[in-house]
């Protein structure tokens, strides 16, 4: 449908749409399920985007057209068992070999990992005199020493595959190094793209919850009248509608600024942080309007609510985006 890597140029088999159009597509996917939107976000913003932004022309032509069609599935390996919010501490390392690199380490919580054909793995390349720099490597499925076991027993994002990536003396050829970026700005640049889509996406989940609650309130009779006729229920619906509308306006402005090229990472943080929080609160209020029915799988609300707990945490937790904003306001970093 052209939804994968939708903002990338047509030259690479992509749709070449505006950021706002892409955001609205993410909104509609997440109205269905955050797991579906996560798939599209990871494929487009975290696997295709680094190849587009940091890869060679050969790498772009080799991978992007097939990724746009979904023939090649990608994932993004940054988080490790011991390094989540602070990826700079990553242990996964690469050592230069005669015809490429040898990678060792482990990644965790990697969306699409088990079903991926191509993993974008971020690792510390050890250079001369203990010098280390974070670089991106394309690790192909089936490479000796590389496996991606699925992480099971999740209560959230159950429609999305989440995996470990295990790298034991994995040989990556020179041509699979992303040549045009080094340092944490590589993965952070990808996360800015993905967070933009998340800010739009979660609004879709909130809309689904709001509509479920509004419909239910008109048909559920208590004390001889629809519960939607009680002022307290109307207050809840009015509050949900207001927060969704404000989040939508934030997204429209985010899209305009991205299209003008003026959008700053902290503005994306503001929207990701706010919209995840209000979507989760809308889901909780909608669950309340549905009463006991709200906890069942007959309605989408509890599923969205559980999904949104993950979305609040991944791609920078609520707290981490608070610190991004705090630093932008004061000029003082408060991470450590
Ligand atoms: C379903 C799912 C899919 C994911 N997909 C991917 C993926 O595809 N690729 C990938 O690389 N990662 C992925 N992640 C990982 C995700 O990005 C991390 O979970 C996230 O960055 C948080 O890291 P953590 O879980 O280790 O929590 P931690 O960093 O251990 O944080 C735990 C708590 O401590 C708080 N905290 C940490 N530091 C501070 C501080 N300085 N000040 C205040 N509070 C702080 C956090 O806000 C949080 O509340 C995924 C996660 C989930 C749940």
The number of helical elements comes to: 8
Q: Please report the distance between the alpha carbons of the first and last residues.
A: 44 Å
Backbone CA Rg: 21 Å
In CATH, the architecture of the largest domain is Up-down Bundle
Ions, cofactors and other ligands present here are: flavin-adenine dinucleotide
Query: What coarse outline follows from CA principal-axis ratios?
Result: elongated
Q: Give the structural class.
A: alpha+beta
Residue ranges: pLDDT <50 for 5 or more in a row? none
Mean pLDDT: 97
Specify the biggest β-sheet: 7 strands, mixed
CATH fold topology of the largest domain: Butyryl-CoA Dehydrogenase, subunit A, domain 3
Strand content: 15-25%
CATH top level class name of the largest domain: Mainly Alpha
- The overall number of domains is 3
What share of the residues lie within helices?
40-55%
Q: What's the name of the CATH homologous superfamily of the largest domain?
A: Butyryl-CoA Dehydrogenase, subunit A, domain 3
Say how many strands there are: 9
The helix/strand series, from N terminus to C terminus, equals HHHEEEEEEEHEEHHHH
